[in-house]
Amino acid sequence: MLIDAEKTAAKQQVVGRPFLPGISGNPAGRPKGSRNKLNEDFLYALQQSFQAQGPSVIDTVIRERPHEYLKIIASILPKQIEIKENAFDGLSDEQLAALVYAARAALSFAESGGAGDTN
To answer: How many independent structural domains does the chain possess?
Structure first.
């Protein structure tokens, strides 16, 4: 009977640290990129679903469950928004003029499709 008890004890699963330090039960490890592949596949499927049905689903949610729509909007907004009363305090007139000039040049560049006179 004592021999049977020892065999049973040897067959029982070891709880705690069944492997020596630095040695795992899967020496080959997880295949490289397998977790990333799952994420990529999920995001691709989500993108395809949204492209096909997203706008109509959003319209349905707005009509039928506006409170859920507002919760979604609130969840994607930043938690803190820093609002300055006057973002240009401390700038000299010359610095303000340079900002206006740079903004006008950027707008002109954008409106011309990136190829035009910025004056």
So the answer is: 2
Please state, in angstroms and rounded to a whole number, the distance separating the CA atoms of residues 93 and 104: 16
- Give per-residue pLDDT as tens, 50-107: 999 999 999 999 999 999 999 998 898 888 777 777 778 888 899 989 999 998 888 8
Residues 65 and 39 in one domain: yes
d(CA 45, CA 55): 16
CB atoms under 10 Å from CB of 61, counted, come to 14
pTM greater than the 0.70 cutoff: no
Question: Considering the domain boundaries, does residue 29 fall inside one?
Answer: no
Structure tokens belonging to residue 117: 């006179």
CA–CA gap between residue 62 and residue 71 (Å, rounded): 11
**Does residue 9 carry a pLDDT above 60?**
no
Q: What helix, strand, coil percent values describe the chain, rounded to 5?
A: 60, 0, 40
The whole-angstrom separation of Cα 61 and Cα 70 is: 10
